[in-house]
Every structure is written in C-alpha cells, then in structure tokens.
Amino acid sequence: MSDTSELTMLQAVNEALHLEMARDDRVVVLGQDVARNGGVFRATEGLFEKFGEDRVVDTPLSEGVIVGAAVGLAMSGLVPVAEIQFLGFSYQAMHQVAGQVARLRYRSQGRFEPAITIRSPFGGGVRTPELHSDSLEGQLANIPGLKVVMPATASDAKGLLSSSIRDPDPVLFLEPLRGYRGIRGDVPDGEHLVPLGEARMARRGDDLVIIAWSYLVEMACRVSDALADEGLSVAVLDLRCLAPLDLAAIAAAVDHCGRVVVVEEASQTGGFAGEVVATIVEECFWSLEAPVVRVSGLDVPYPVGMVEDVFVPDEARITAAVRRTLETA
Fold first, then answer.
1. Which of 6, 100, 244, 280 is paired with 92 by a 20 to 30 Å CA distance?
2. Catalytic residue among 18, 95, 132, 256
3. Stated pTM of the model
C-alpha cells in the first residue's frame, strides 16, 4: 500500500502541479498572479522558483488573453495549464472557451491536440465580492468538446488534476473555494491518478441516494452521517465529473435506492441538476419510488456575502429534501 500524507485540497492541487511539471517539461502554467505571487490562494506557490519564468507565466488581467494564449501554446505542442482566478470571470473568456478551446480538435480535423487544462475556483461560503462565487458548471457542461471535472476530496483534487493535465482533450478543472482549506484528507504520495468519468460512492446506503459534486458532496456526507443516527440509510454519490458523466454509476445507485435527491450550488433553472434528473427519468424511471427532488441555488444573481447563506444550499435544506422524499408514498 502506498504512503499517504494528510493534505488540504489546496496543498493537493499544488502538489499535482509540481509533479506534472517535473514529469513533463511541455507543461506550462499561466494566469494572473500565478508566478511570482504563487497565485491569489497560493495554489501555484513554488512553481516559479522551481521551473522558471519560461514555464510559469504571469499574464495581463484579461481572461480572454489567458485562454487564447493557452490555445496557441497547445497548437505549438505544449501542455498549458491556465488559471482563471475566479470562475465568474470566465464570462470574459467564453468566446475563447466555447469558440476555440472546445472546437480545436474538430476544426483542425484532428491535426491539433488541445491538451489544455483550465483551472478555476468557485463556490460560496467564503463571503466573496460579486462574480467570485458563481457556479457556472451547468453552462460549461453544455459546451460540446469540453470535459468538466469537479473534485470533492483532497485525494481526488490531486488525482483528477494529474489525469486532466495528461488528457489529450480540453478539461475545465473547477475547485471549490470552501474546500481549499476546509477539506483535508489522506492523499497518496508521489504519482496519483484518478480516471476521468468515474463517479465515487462517498457513502453507502439503501433508503435514498444524494447525488452531488464538488463541496456539496462534503455537505451531503454530513447529512448522511447525521441521519444514520436516526436509523436512515442514505447513500452519497460523488459525480466527480459532469462531462463525461458516469451514467452507469447513476443508474446503479438509483436502481438500488429508488429515491433520489440531487444537490447543486448553481441556480436551479438550467442547472446541471436538471440534466441529472432527466438522465434518471430516461434510464431508471421504473426504479423510482418517489419523484426526484432538486436542492439548488436560487434563481437570482449571486448575492452579497451578508445574505449568501440564504442562497447556497445548506445541510438543513438537504436534510429537509431527504425527509420529504422518504415520506413520499
């Protein structure tokens, strides 16, 4: 059994970047404040000193430039890892993400390999200013040609990031702000790879399954543990990736439990939870013992920090949804 170290999610991300840059000298890191400053959260700390200014590059404050430069670097044979400082800022790069990154392999008929990883933190619970906490994964998963990866543990943050960087297709790697220092766990030392597109059963259960991703997996697990004290058996399925989506894992969990709650931070209308519900109805309709329930953010612009607790799903809302679903005949 390999050795492990207890790391925060932030430390796990940093370790993966160090290992991948040491393994492959084609890997380059670029973004705002990623070099000399080590990133606003220190996710890229130590990379500039170890690998130098040619491989760790501070860019202008322009998300379109950051992503557009990553396209050019990939076309020249490098493996760029671009950082968008906060996911809400990616709107300023959407013309590059959707119009260039996602289409590069198709547009070039396979001539160019878009081995591009775009990292970005997101999510509530940290009292950020406007456009810093927005959960845009549903919008991004709607862009064909992109893989969308959303780790919920420190171990997965390292393993999924390494796999993302090695993937020949473009990957959006989204990191929960609350998880940077709020999630820690045992992480394998040295090389650690977690395959993209394979969900993880975070809690086993028989009565109901909560399907979630990113930080809300942590909250769902707390709900599961608390309800276990009452004799309720609640499973938690961590999707890990929204694209590709592990349809087999979803079907297996729903077929086993028959009752489902899907949890997301994004606003409900058009959110990815709706895609999960549609998949369940198409694949597992006859296994359902109750309607599928969503717990989502509200259909309003992300609020100021003083009231964000009303917007972001919490353990009380998840627990209420679980109880309501279990009580439905």
1. 244
2. 132
3. 0.96
